Amino acid sequence: MLSAQERAHVTQVWDLIAGHEAPFGAELLLRLFTVYPSTKTYFKHLGDPLDEVQLLSHGQRVLEAVGVAVRHMDNLRAALSPLADLHAHVLRVDPTNFPLLIQCFQVVLASHLQGEYTVEMQAVWDKFLTALAVVLTEKYR
Ligand code: HEM
Protein backbone atom coordinates (compact mmCIF):
# COMPACT_ATOMS: atom_id res chain seq x y z
CA MET A 1 0.00 0.00 0.00
CA LEU A 2 0.96 3.66 0.18
CA SER A 3 3.75 4.94 2.39
CA ALA A 4 3.15 7.76 4.85
CA GLN A 5 4.72 10.23 2.42
CA GLU A 6 2.61 8.98 -0.47
CA ARG A 7 -0.54 9.35 1.62
CA ALA A 8 0.43 12.90 2.44
CA HIS A 9 0.76 13.63 -1.28
CA VAL A 10 -2.67 12.14 -2.01
CA THR A 11 -4.21 14.32 0.70
CA GLN A 12 -2.35 17.40 -0.52
CA VAL A 13 -3.91 17.05 -3.98
CA TRP A 14 -7.33 16.19 -2.55
CA ASP A 15 -7.32 19.38 -0.46
CA LEU A 16 -7.21 21.33 -3.75
CA ILE A 17 -10.23 19.44 -5.13
CA ALA A 18 -12.40 19.27 -1.99
CA GLY A 19 -15.32 21.66 -2.29
CA HIS A 20 -15.33 21.37 -6.09
CA GLU A 21 -16.56 17.78 -6.36
CA ALA A 22 -19.45 18.51 -8.75
CA PRO A 23 -17.57 20.39 -11.52
CA PHE A 24 -14.50 18.13 -11.30
CA GLY A 25 -16.70 15.04 -11.32
CA ALA A 26 -18.80 16.27 -14.24
CA GLU A 27 -15.65 16.96 -16.25
CA LEU A 28 -14.34 13.51 -15.39
CA LEU A 29 -17.52 11.90 -16.72
CA LEU A 30 -17.64 14.11 -19.80
CA ARG A 31 -14.06 13.14 -20.67
CA LEU A 32 -14.80 9.47 -19.98
CA PHE A 33 -17.88 9.38 -22.21
CA THR A 34 -16.23 11.40 -24.98
CA VAL A 35 -12.85 9.68 -25.10
CA TYR A 36 -14.23 6.18 -24.43
CA PRO A 37 -17.82 6.20 -25.82
CA SER A 38 -18.41 2.56 -24.87
CA THR A 39 -18.56 3.70 -21.21
CA LYS A 40 -21.76 5.63 -22.03
CA THR A 41 -23.68 2.36 -22.30
CA TYR A 42 -23.90 2.26 -18.50
CA PHE A 43 -25.30 5.78 -18.33
CA LYS A 44 -28.17 5.87 -20.81
CA HIS A 45 -30.32 7.47 -18.10
CA LEU A 46 -28.11 10.60 -18.15
CA GLY A 47 -29.67 11.43 -21.51
CA ASP A 48 -28.41 11.97 -25.04
CA PRO A 49 -27.39 14.76 -25.27
CA LEU A 50 -26.14 14.53 -21.70
CA ASP A 51 -28.20 16.32 -19.12
CA GLU A 52 -25.92 18.88 -17.48
CA VAL A 53 -27.66 18.73 -14.09
CA GLN A 54 -27.48 14.93 -13.97
CA LEU A 55 -23.85 15.01 -15.05
CA LEU A 56 -23.00 17.38 -12.20
CA SER A 57 -25.01 15.34 -9.75
CA HIS A 58 -23.44 11.99 -10.64
CA GLY A 59 -20.01 13.58 -10.95
CA GLN A 60 -20.37 14.93 -7.45
CA ARG A 61 -21.32 11.51 -6.08
CA VAL A 62 -18.31 9.85 -7.71
CA LEU A 63 -15.88 12.48 -6.44
CA GLU A 64 -17.40 12.40 -2.96
CA ALA A 65 -16.71 8.67 -2.92
CA VAL A 66 -13.09 9.40 -3.85
CA GLY A 67 -13.06 11.83 -0.90
CA VAL A 68 -14.27 9.04 1.39
CA ALA A 69 -11.45 6.86 0.04
CA VAL A 70 -8.90 9.60 0.76
CA ARG A 71 -10.13 9.80 4.35
CA HIS A 72 -9.97 6.00 4.74
CA MET A 73 -6.78 5.23 2.86
CA ASP A 74 -5.70 2.73 5.49
CA ASN A 75 -8.99 0.87 5.32
CA LEU A 76 -10.24 1.18 1.74
CA ARG A 77 -11.87 -2.23 1.63
CA ALA A 78 -14.23 -1.60 4.54
CA ALA A 79 -14.94 2.01 3.56
CA LEU A 80 -15.88 1.10 -0.02
CA SER A 81 -17.57 -2.23 0.58
CA PRO A 82 -21.15 -1.09 -0.24
CA LEU A 83 -19.90 0.68 -3.38
CA ALA A 84 -17.99 -2.45 -4.42
CA ASP A 85 -21.16 -4.53 -4.00
CA LEU A 86 -23.09 -2.03 -6.10
CA HIS A 87 -20.61 -1.99 -9.00
CA ALA A 88 -20.08 -5.75 -9.04
CA HIS A 89 -23.48 -7.23 -8.23
CA VAL A 90 -26.04 -4.59 -9.16
CA LEU A 91 -24.50 -2.48 -11.92
CA ARG A 92 -22.17 -5.22 -13.25
CA VAL A 93 -19.72 -2.67 -14.59
CA ASP A 94 -17.00 -4.46 -16.56
CA PRO A 95 -13.69 -4.01 -14.67
CA THR A 96 -11.93 -2.95 -17.89
CA ASN A 97 -13.71 0.41 -17.54
CA PHE A 98 -11.86 1.39 -14.38
CA PRO A 99 -8.46 2.09 -15.99
CA LEU A 100 -10.29 4.30 -18.50
CA LEU A 101 -11.79 6.33 -15.66
CA ILE A 102 -8.38 6.58 -13.97
CA GLN A 103 -6.85 7.86 -17.21
CA CYS A 104 -9.50 10.60 -17.44
CA PHE A 105 -9.11 11.43 -13.75
CA GLN A 106 -5.41 12.04 -14.30
CA VAL A 107 -6.15 14.43 -17.16
CA VAL A 108 -8.67 16.36 -15.03
CA LEU A 109 -6.11 16.75 -12.25
CA ALA A 110 -3.28 17.71 -14.59
CA SER A 111 -5.32 20.27 -16.50
CA HIS A 112 -6.58 22.02 -13.38
CA LEU A 113 -3.62 21.80 -11.03
CA GLN A 114 -0.98 22.28 -13.74
CA GLY A 115 2.42 22.97 -12.13
CA GLU A 116 1.24 21.73 -8.75
CA TYR A 117 0.53 18.35 -10.29
CA THR A 118 4.08 17.13 -10.39
CA VAL A 119 5.34 13.83 -11.81
CA GLU A 120 5.51 12.56 -8.24
CA MET A 121 1.87 13.52 -7.63
CA GLN A 122 0.77 11.74 -10.79
CA ALA A 123 2.61 8.58 -9.76
CA VAL A 124 1.04 8.63 -6.28
CA TRP A 125 -2.46 9.33 -7.59
CA ASP A 126 -2.13 6.52 -10.10
CA LYS A 127 -1.24 4.18 -7.27
CA PHE A 128 -4.10 5.42 -5.09
CA LEU A 129 -6.78 5.29 -7.81
CA THR A 130 -5.59 1.84 -8.86
CA ALA A 131 -5.91 0.63 -5.26
CA LEU A 132 -9.42 2.10 -5.21
CA ALA A 133 -10.32 0.35 -8.48
CA VAL A 134 -8.95 -2.97 -7.15
CA VAL A 135 -11.32 -2.73 -4.18
CA LEU A 136 -14.28 -1.75 -6.37
CA THR A 137 -13.71 -4.68 -8.76
CA GLU A 138 -12.57 -7.51 -6.50
CA LYS A 139 -16.09 -8.67 -5.61
CA TYR A 140 -16.60 -9.92 -9.17
CA ARG A 141 -14.70 -13.08 -8.29
C1 HEM B 1 -22.77 4.69 -9.38
C2 HEM B 1 -18.40 5.83 -7.60
C3 HEM B 1 -16.31 3.72 -11.43
C4 HEM B 1 -20.64 3.13 -13.45
C5 HEM B 1 -21.75 5.18 -8.57
C6 HEM B 1 -21.96 5.90 -7.33
C7 HEM B 1 -20.74 6.22 -6.84
C8 HEM B 1 -19.76 5.70 -7.75
C9 HEM B 1 -20.45 6.97 -5.54
C10 HEM B 1 -23.34 6.24 -6.71
C11 HEM B 1 -23.70 5.18 -5.73
C12 HEM B 1 -25.06 5.34 -5.13
O1 HEM B 1 -25.93 5.96 -5.74
O2 HEM B 1 -25.27 4.84 -4.02
C13 HEM B 1 -17.45 5.31 -8.47
C14 HEM B 1 -16.01 5.42 -8.27
C15 HEM B 1 -15.43 4.81 -9.35
C16 HEM B 1 -16.50 4.35 -10.22
C17 HEM B 1 -15.36 6.08 -7.06
C18 HEM B 1 -13.97 4.61 -9.68
C19 HEM B 1 -12.95 5.10 -9.03
C20 HEM B 1 -17.29 3.44 -12.34
C21 HEM B 1 -17.07 3.01 -13.70
C22 HEM B 1 -18.28 2.86 -14.27
C23 HEM B 1 -19.28 3.18 -13.26
C24 HEM B 1 -15.68 2.79 -14.33
C25 HEM B 1 -18.63 2.47 -15.70
C26 HEM B 1 -18.00 2.92 -16.75
C27 HEM B 1 -21.58 3.49 -12.50
C28 HEM B 1 -23.02 3.48 -12.76
C29 HEM B 1 -23.63 3.94 -11.59
C30 HEM B 1 -22.55 4.21 -10.64
C31 HEM B 1 -23.73 3.06 -14.05
C32 HEM B 1 -25.15 4.13 -11.34
C33 HEM B 1 -25.49 5.52 -11.80
C34 HEM B 1 -26.86 5.98 -11.36
O3 HEM B 1 -27.50 5.33 -10.55
O4 HEM B 1 -27.28 7.04 -11.83
N1 HEM B 1 -20.41 5.08 -8.81
N2 HEM B 1 -17.70 4.67 -9.65
N3 HEM B 1 -18.64 3.52 -12.11
N4 HEM B 1 -21.35 3.92 -11.24
FE1 HEM B 1 -19.53 4.21 -10.42
From TrEMBL:
<dbReference type="GO" id="GO:0072562">
    <property type="term" value="C:blood microparticle"/>
</dbReference>
<dbReference type="InterPro" id="IPR000971">
    <property type="entry name" value="Globin"/>
</dbReference>
<dbReference type="GO" id="GO:0031838">
    <property type="term" value="C:haptoglobin-hemoglobin complex"/>
</dbReference>
<dbReference type="InterPro" id="IPR050056">
    <property type="entry name" value="Hemoglobin_oxygen_transport"/>
</dbReference>
<dbReference type="GO" id="GO:0031720">
    <property type="term" value="F:haptoglobin binding"/>
</dbReference>
<comment type="similarity">
    <text>Belongs to the globin family.</text>
</comment>
<dbReference type="InterPro" id="IPR012292">
    <property type="entry name" value="Globin/Proto"/>
</dbReference>
<keyword id="KW-0561">Oxygen transport</keyword>
<dbReference type="GO" id="GO:0020037">
    <property type="term" value="F:heme binding"/>
</dbReference>
<dbReference type="GO" id="GO:0043177">
    <property type="term" value="F:organic acid binding"/>
</dbReference>
<dbReference type="GO" id="GO:0046872">
    <property type="term" value="F:metal ion binding"/>
</dbReference>
<dbReference type="GO" id="GO:0042744">
    <property type="term" value="P:hydrogen peroxide catabolic process"/>
</dbReference>
<dbReference type="Pfam" id="PF00042">
    <property type="entry name" value="Globin"/>
</dbReference>
<keyword id="KW-0408">Iron</keyword>
<dbReference type="InterPro" id="IPR002338">
    <property type="entry name" value="Hemoglobin_a-typ"/>
</dbReference>
<dbReference type="GO" id="GO:0005344">
    <property type="term" value="F:oxygen carrier activity"/>
</dbReference>
<keyword id="KW-0349">Heme</keyword>
<dbReference type="InterPro" id="IPR009050">
    <property type="entry name" value="Globin-like_sf"/>
</dbReference>
<keyword id="KW-0813">Transport</keyword>
<feature type="domain" description="Globin">
    <location>
        <begin position="1"/>
        <end position="141"/>
    </location>
</feature>
<protein>
    <recommendedName>
        <fullName>Hemoglobin subunit mu</fullName>
    </recommendedName>
</protein>
<keyword id="KW-0479">Metal-binding</keyword>
<dbReference type="GO" id="GO:0004601">
    <property type="term" value="F:peroxidase activity"/>
</dbReference>
<dbReference type="GO" id="GO:0005833">
    <property type="term" value="C:hemoglobin complex"/>
</dbReference>
<dbReference type="GO" id="GO:0019825">
    <property type="term" value="F:oxygen binding"/>
</dbReference>
